[in-house]
């Protein structure tokens, strides 16, 4: 078993064993237990009472974090020439079509989000084996396949995230940075949780929110008492 560092022991000492915290308390505590020298990401992990193997219990959605993610999001817009200026004006980092499809086929995937149009999905679709495993494949459900390219780019740059339950029934996503004030971490986390609540499948029975944990890069997880979260 790996030995805990001095900082890790100090972080653990601030979390009361067996205690579940309110979302407000956890949002402040996650800052206290962050010991990295860089600006750590703050993540939320939610175990849902769903069976992702069943199509009618799949949970996938979009949330626009009120305070953004704190990350620089690199956006590639795969669009036709008539949409290039719109994408550039909205802040896309890379804009084009055939030349970028060729680059991706050659192994280039140095982006965070790819936005494209329905009319070019036949070309983009053949990139599935490269983009799929990297979670970069555009999808209409996540708003990354759209005719309103400018709006999609603007939203992603402003803090729009998409999430999908994994095969074990867990949603994992970043909601900000440890440098954020506690109230901004709280409000971003609340937005994700309330969005998940609205997405509850009608086929899901029993407890929907089984557990919620907040953590930062390399920190221990803080368990959140679900009853303290407004609107879920």
From TrEMBL:
Domain of life, source organism: Bacteria
Functional description taken from the UniProt entry: Protein L1 is also a translational repressor protein, it controls the translation of the L11 operon by binding to its mRNA. Binds directly to 23S rRNA. The L1 stalk is quite mobile in the ribosome, and is involved in E site tRNA release.
Keyword check for RNA-binding: yes
Keyword set, alphabetical order: Repressor, Ribonucleoprotein, Ribosomal protein, RNA-binding, rRNA-binding, Translation regulation, tRNA-binding
Gene name in the database record: rplA
Pfam families recorded: Ribosomal_L1
Organism: Pararcticibacter amylolyticus
Subunit structure, interactors included: Part of the 50S ribosomal subunit.
GO cellular component: large ribosomal subunit
Gene Ontology molecular function terms on file: rRNA binding; structural constituent of ribosome; tRNA binding
Example GO biological process: translation
Name listed for the protein in its UniProt record: Large ribosomal subunit protein uL1
Record has Membrane as a keyword: no
Record-stated family: Belongs to the universal ribosomal protein uL1 family.
């Amino acid at each position: 078993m790996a030995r805990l560092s001095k900082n890790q022991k100090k972080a653990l000492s601030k979390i009361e064993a067996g205690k579940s915290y309110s979302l407000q308390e956890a949002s402040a505590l996650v800052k206290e237990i962050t010991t990295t020298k860089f600006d750590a990401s703050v993540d939320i992990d939610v175990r849902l009472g769903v069976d992702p193997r069943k199509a009618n219990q799949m949970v996938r959605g979009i949330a626009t974090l009120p305070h953004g993610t704190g990350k620089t999001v690199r956006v590639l817009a795969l669009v036709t020439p008539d949409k290039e200026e719109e994408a550039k004006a909205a802040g896309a980092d890379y804009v084009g079509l055939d030349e970028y499809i060729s680059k991706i086929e050659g192994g280039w995937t140095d982006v965070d989000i790819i936005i494209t149009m329905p009319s070019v999905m036949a070309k983009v679709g053949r990139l599935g084996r490269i983009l799929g495993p990297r979670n970069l494949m555009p999808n209409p459900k996540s708003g990354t396949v759209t005719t309103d390219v400018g709006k999609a780019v603007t939203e992603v740059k402003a803090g729009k995230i998409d999430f999908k339950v994994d095969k074990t029934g867990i949603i994992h996503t970043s909601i900000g940075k440890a440098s954020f004030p506690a109230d901004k971490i709280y409000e971003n986390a609340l937005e994700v949780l309330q969005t998940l609540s609205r997405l509850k499948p009608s086929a899901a029975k029993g407890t929907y929110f089984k557990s919620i944990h907040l953590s930062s890069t390399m920190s221990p997880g803080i368990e959140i008492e679900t009853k303290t979260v407004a609107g879920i």
